Amino acid sequence: MAVSKKRLSSKVGSKSRTVLVPWVGREPSFLNGVAINSEVHFVGVPLCSYDRGHSAERERDVFAEIAQYEWAIFLDDESVHAFFESFFKNFSDARCLGPMRVACLSQTAVNTVKGYRYAVDLVEAENLGKELLDTHSLDSSKVLIVGPEGEGDALIKFLETEGHAIVDHLPIYKRVWMDGELKGSQNEAVAIVLSSEAVFYGFLKCADVFASCRQRLLALAANETVAALMKAKKLPVDAVLEEDVSEASVQKALDALG
């Protein structure tokens, strides 16, 4: 999958500054509709692609007994999309989920669940397993963990050993990392924007790509949460955007940096 070139219009001014916008999952909406006369020129860079086809057999097994689960725990927002899209291919009514309650690891996942008109009973980013056991009895309860392949093992073990729950894991998709896309996009860029926590963690997978970069890119964080994560990993933070990511907010940050 190539770096998106659709923002590389010949109408972009010669004085425009190229800014890399890495993304994971679904291309962010702010990459569309950049003003022609903007001094900022976004180049979207996909950090990974998602393979959903590998778990088809496991999905069939889970959906065959879906009404038996008392809890579903979603590890990220893409897991929510993948789960409900697959679910509605098999069932026409959300009531087929039965009495299942939902827990999420992030507010982004919560918002995604609500987009499918389903309620969320618990959200906890720091220690969801402990919070769940502190507020609910899971003894012999059936719990479904929905997330990317290779993630969730620690949570599964905790719920089984400490909560005595019966836990099933549905690896609803697999991440395929594409660090070559990031490497190939650096030539004309002056800055990079990390627009969310998910993008930050994805960026860590291929941050060493920049080790040999001839000129260090200015690093912009979309908000204080992302900035704190960057600093915790000793990554430079040149500016924190004062507003949502847009050509205007990025241009303002770059102007302030000179």
Can you characterise this structure?
With 258 residues, the protein is an alpha/beta fold. The chain folds into two domains: 17-50 and 178-257, Rossmann fold (3-Layer(aba) Sandwich), CATH 3.40.50.10090; 53-175, Rossmann fold (3-Layer(aba) Sandwich). Helix content is 32%, strand content 24%. The chain has nine helices and ten strands. The protein has helices spanning 56-64, 77-90, 107-115, 128-135, 153-161, 179-183, 197-205, 224-232, 247-257; strands spanning 17-24, 40-51, 71-74, 101-104, 122-123, 142-148, 166-177, 189-194, 218-221, 239-240. The protein has a ten-stranded mixed beta sheet, sandwiched between helices. The longest helix has 14 residues, at 77-90. It is elongated and about 60 Å long.
Topology at a glance:
Blueprint: E1 17-24, E2 40-51, H1 56-64, E3 71-74, H2 77-90, E4 101-104, H3 107-115, E5 122-123, H4 128-135, E6 142-148, H5 153-161, E7 166-177, H6 179-183, E8 189-194, H7 197-205, E9 218-221, H8 224-232, E10 239-240, H9 247-257
Parallel strand pairs: 1-2, 1-8, 3-4, 3-6, 4-5, 6-7, 8-9, 9-10
Antiparallel strand pairs: 2-7
